[in-house]
Amino acid sequence: MADILHTSPNDWKYVSEGGATIVFSYKGPPNPDFDGTVLRLRKSIVPANGAKRVAHASFAQEEPDDPTIEYQAKCMEKLIPPEHLPRLETVFLNKEWLRKLSDLKDALRPEGRRAKDEIDLNRKKGVLATDLVGGNWVAVEIKPKWAFLPSPTHLSTETKSVKTQTCRFCMHSHLRSQEGEKVVTDYCPLDLFSGQKSRVLNAINSLWNAWLASEATVNNLKIFSRGKFLRPSEAHAMLADNTSKETQLDTIRDTFAAALVRYLLQTPVLSILSRLQRNLDVLDIEGLSKLWKFTESSAPLYRTTFASFFEQTSDSPSSAPPSTPLGVSSLFLNAPEPSIPDWIDFLDKYLSSDRPELDHNNPSPKYLHYYLLAYLLSATFKDCSIIIRMDMLEPGTEPTADIRPESVTVIDLDPKSMDKLRGWEKLDNDIVRTYSSAQKKVCVDEWQAPR
Ligand SMILES: [Zn+2]
């Protein structure tokens, strides 16, 4: 295992951070263990004034590897060809090294983040990964989001006409605009996933426009050049050295789009993600929720606990026994957080050629657990990002070189947890309810099974 404690915290450059992790790239003296790598560290909440930091009790003895590593090695590699996954490995850390790093780099972090969280100094392990953005290339990070329109089978009469016409992302954008978010994009993931050049170009242009309008703060497109995160005013940094620095922004946009579309049309990554999302979310959250309620209400203990409800006659149809929110364990129904062995078990079933044919039109309570895990896994693919590593842009020259498979990598493949489900069900409801009164956009799903 590479020994990171022998590198100086000075050799690590702050790159970026998300809600849970912060990323540094290696810029120290040549070192085969660390050249071309990034270090990903977990963050912890900044304690309120006066509160004491509490060490993770569960890590007192042996801290497990970051779950991302095990999840990738044991699960994701069964679904996504390894050439499209980053190299990930565990490195050991200590508090002294982390504190030095934190002291050196904290001032470089966005102010809003610094108020909220910091590097978790109690962690003993971090993740070393391929540096996908830091080399002599343009790295484009796209968060594609939902790739499909749901099957109408389990949708309610109120939601069916909405959800089968407008994709989830476009409806969510509408909700965000209603809630007052300033930059709302007209990007439609179904364009990106369509496999058709003109539609993929549309998607790229929409992503670019939102990138411009938001000053690169939009979530769905990030651009890096030679390791530097670019804002629109720095778009020239995408150009090859021999290119005129007078190049207009529109020319850069067109060159960017022409280069990117080649990668997106040639890589199998988008169709793999689309197929996985769709095949793992066959019931929609509405169907999953119905199956959950039905399974719970079939439990013998539930029937006896709420016997009075079941004995009621149709005179009082308004009263129904209470049900437990989706994904929350109760006395009647157990929905434990999936462990890695649970995921492996699920994937063995999912990928087995002789698995019993599940009747998705009439899902059985017997398979509730299967459908729950399938939905969570689908959510991982709805929320992941892809990074495309392209040559520096040269306006006016037509790129012809073959695209190497490993130029497109899938990242942010974290397992999702059961306790997200109830929130997702509510969000789905809010999104569709708000959209019902909107001007309906028509999103075309090229890969939809004929109805
Ligand atoms: Zn759409």
UniProtKB/TrEMBL annotation:
One of its GO terms (cellular component) is nucleus. Its EC number is 2.7.1.158. Keywords: ATP-binding, Kinase, Nucleotide-binding, Transferase. InterPro entries: Ins_P5_2-kin, IP5_2-K_N_lobe. It holds the Pfam family Ins_P5_2-kin. The lineage of its organism: Eukaryota, Fungi, Dikarya, Basidiomycota, Agaricomycotina. One of its GO terms (molecular function) is inositol-1,3,4,5,6-pentakisphosphate 2-kinase activity. This is Inositol-pentakisphosphate 2-kinase. One of its GO terms (biological process) is inositol phosphate biosynthetic process. The keyword Metal-binding does not apply. Phosphorylates Ins(1,3,4,5,6)P5 at position 2 to form Ins(1,2,3,4,5,6)P6 (InsP6 or phytate). It is an enzyme of class 2 (transferase). The EXKPK motif is conserved in inositol-pentakisphosphate 2-kinases of both family 1 and 2. It comes from Cyclocybe aegerita (Black poplar mushroom). The keyword Transferase applies. PANTHER family: INOSITOL POLYPHOSPHATE KINASE 1 (PTHR14456), INOSITOL-PENTAKISPHOSPHATE 2-KINASE (PTHR14456:SF2). It comes from the Eukaryota. It catalyses: 1D-myo-inositol 1,3,4,5,6-pentakisphosphate + ATP = 1D-myo-inositol hexakisphosphate + ADP + H(+).
